[in-house]
Known about the structure:
The protein is mostly helical.
Amino acid sequence: MTDKPKFEVIDRRKMKAEEEEQQTHHSSEPVEPGGGPRLVVNEAPAVAPAEPPQAAPPPEQEFENALPPAPTAQESKEQKAAYEASADRVEDILRAQNPGLGKQPPVGFEHLVQQFYLSAMIQMGAGTQEGQRPRVDIVGARSTIDMLAVLAEKTKGNLNAQEDRMLQSVLFELRMAFLELTSMINMQSVTPPPSGKP
Length: 198
């Protein structure tokens, strides 16, 4: 009799494997379901052929791929003008509240180097008030010193003699402070604990 209801027994693992294969290959062809009842038993799931592993792009390429498109020259010009106007308004407000403040000098290369220097020294525990235990961020200090070294490398040949001397002196001083600090840390870690014996 043909009055029997039609039914289909489907191994869901089979369908899932087909869907994954379709998504992997981005196929636009529809999957045609088989006609009539079907039962899939002991059938290995479809496995896509293994693709050769692709080498990960270098970090510089990954960073570049994540960047948004660069602004146009006109966009940069307009944005810079808006930024300067906003900064001037902030300065006017500060001078109105503090009449003796005066106009702030423009930020120069020496301010950038000084900021790196202060950050690294604070990370290495400088500036701790007397009687307090210094809080040392040795990993952060290393990162800050390394960033300053990147700045030195990228600005090589583009600095005047005074700027280059200042940058090299600051780098030298920070690296020496880092070496002293890590030597102290190493000595503390290998010093045996005091024994209770006289």
